[in-house]
Write a structure and sequence with these properties.
The protein is an alpha+beta fold. It has four helices and ten strands, in the order αββββββββββααα. It folds into two domains: 50 residues; 109 residues, abc- transporter (atp binding component) like domain (Coagulation Factor XIII, Chain A, domain 1), CATH 2.70.50.60. The longest helix is centred in the last third of the chain and has 31 residues. It is elongated and about 90 Å long.
Length: 191
């Protein structure tokens, strides 16, 4: 019985300290150049609303200079390019941390974001292509979008694996206690 309770206790602790799945802020790399993508609002774009994209570049060889990059951002929907522009357009002082652009997704769908870079003139860095799948699951003004602003619903959806796991652990502990009591009553009867 004590082993079962200890086992259940350990599982509860593991469930509580397990980090949430993070689908945003993923570093994508190609060769020595990589970038972390941030999307506003809340790394969960809304169809029909402008989303702001921010990239933080990393370079293992310290050879990537944004001002020396012919960098392009493009977005594809179902294999068709629907947006393209120079990544550092309108940026007078491009750095590894200030690449940004804005885009409003036309509808809910899964889009492909492509960041590509070629060195201008003599190559100081290796050409690269970074791709990100962007899921747009909400629409502006929809009930779903309004519901997600409710803190309780957000908390519940984020912690659903913890709640389900806790429920099963509680069932396990209850059945273990019942089994132990039945076994102890049987041993008293046979004595």
């Amino acid at each position: 019985m004590r082993k079962q309770l200890l086992f259940a206790f350990i599982w509860v602790i593991l469930l509580l300290i397990t980090p949430e799945l993070a689908l945003a802020h993923i570093l994508k790399a190609n060769g020595s150049v990589g970038a972390v993508l941030h999307v506003s609002p809340d790394d969960d774009p809304i169809a029909g609303q402008q989303s702001d994209f921010f990239l933080q570049f990393k370079d293992k060889k310290n050879a990537f200079i944004p001002g020396n990059c012919d960098c392009t951002v493009s977005i594809k929907q179902a294999g068709k390019e629907i947006f393209s522009q120079p990544l550092f357009e309108g940026n007078d002082n491009p750095t590894l941390d200030n690449a940004s652009f804005s885009f409003a997704f036309p509808q809910r769908d899964i889009y492909l974001l492509i960041i590509s870079g070629q060195p201008k003139g003599v190559g100081t860095f290796e050409p690269f292509t970074l791709t990100y799948d962007i899921r747009v699951a909400r629409e502006a003004g929809s009930v779903e979008t309004k519901t997600n602003t409710n803190g309780f619903i957000d908390w519940t959806s984020k912690h659903m694996p913890h709640l389900i796991g806790s429920f099963f652990i509680a069932l396990f502990v209850i059945f273990a206690i019942i089994r132990e009591r039945v076994a102890s009553q049987k041993s008293k009867k046979t004595s």
